[in-house]
Amino acid sequence: MANLRLALLAAAALLLSPAFAAAQLRTDYYATICPNLEAIVRGSVKYSMGQSPISAPAALRLFFHDCAVRGCDASIMIVNSNGDDEWRHPDDQSLKQEGFQTILDAKAAVDSDPQCRHKVSCADILALAARESVSQSGGPSYPVELGRYDGKISTKNSVVLPHADFNLDQLNGFFSGLGLSQTDMIALSGGHTMGAADCSFFQYRIGTDPSMDPNFAAQLGGTCVNSQSFAFLDGSTPVKFDNAYYKNLQAGRGLLGSDQVLHADVRSRGTVDYYAYDQGTFFYDFANAMTRLGRVGVKTAADGEIRRDCRFPN
Ligand code: HEM
């Protein structure tokens, strides 16, 4: 009897573990269900990127914020009528509308194919749109594991995200909670090779942070003139996915404290220097880290669904 209980407990633990949930993911998951899926999402993201230069960085960030909270289950997309949902949490308020719109448009494009209608999860569309945002901006194209189900729950109090003033230990603590290594974290931070940040996230560093290049500080000081002001995370090539982010860090031109600390702290500097030197290794590690991020907290048919409208549980 005790043995049976032990066996049942072991089976239950296996079912709950991320490794087991991830086991259902396959790159060819929709091969027969929706054979044109990847081409449809590719075309839709291309259209969104043509509509706005913010779409690609916004969609990439949305994927990170989705996976980091309750796993990659599109819970970030849910709109609850009582106002208690992830996207209304202060840490998600800077997510740009263009990112959400990119996903809604891609879902509409997928559902306009009769073979695919209501068969592809919003969580998988997010993962594909993130990849497209990267590859169509000049970054790596990598196979995306698919087969996630959409979550049914989104609440404000489940939101825990890293902050722009985190030090290396805090960053590592957060990412290890997702099962990701320091190398994964440094590679994923390279997502800051695209997009922008509001002054509220970095203004406190200007003139006070010795790791910031003084010329860069002077330049930023002139940028932050009102509450709408922002700066590009990678000032040299803001719409291109490349390794300029790491070169900026070497020059003390990282925008966020959590960016610059990766070079300021000797424990992570070697990896930053390597990515600055070898873009190919950065692309390779970024693709692998995105794949691992995409396995976090994946839902199955038992605890998820294929949402018809990404904004509302069925
Ligand atoms: C390491 C911890 C991280 C911190 C502290 C952090 C923090 C931030 C902050 C404060 C912004 C500015 C938001 C705004 O003002 O609109 C931002 C933007 C952005 N983040 Fe992160 N982030 C982190 C990791 C990541 C990861 C892992 C990715 C994706 C792989 C990512 C992708 C982006 C992108 C693309 C933007 C630009 C968004 C836009 O232009 O709309 N970030 N991040």
UniProtKB/TrEMBL annotation:
The record marks R61 as: Transition state stabilizer. It catalyses: 2 a phenolic donor + H2O2 = 2 a phenolic radical donor + 2 H2O. Ca(2+) 2 binds at T193, D234, T237, D242. The keyword RNA-binding does not apply. Its cofactor is Ca(2+); heme b. Ca(2+) 1 binds at D66, V69, G71, D73, S75, E86. Keywords: Calcium, Disulfide bond, Glycoprotein, Heme, Hydrogen peroxide, Iron, Metal-binding, Oxidoreductase, Peroxidase, Pyrrolidone carboxylic acid, Secreted, Signal. Residues 1-23 form the signal peptide. Substrate binds at P162. PROSITE patterns: PEROXIDASE_1, PEROXIDASE_2, PEROXIDASE_4. Its main location: secreted. The active site is at H65 (proton acceptor). This is Peroxidase. It comes from Brachypodium distachyon. The lineage of its organism: Eukaryota, Viridiplantae, Streptophyta, Embryophyta, Tracheophyta. The gene is LOC100834474.
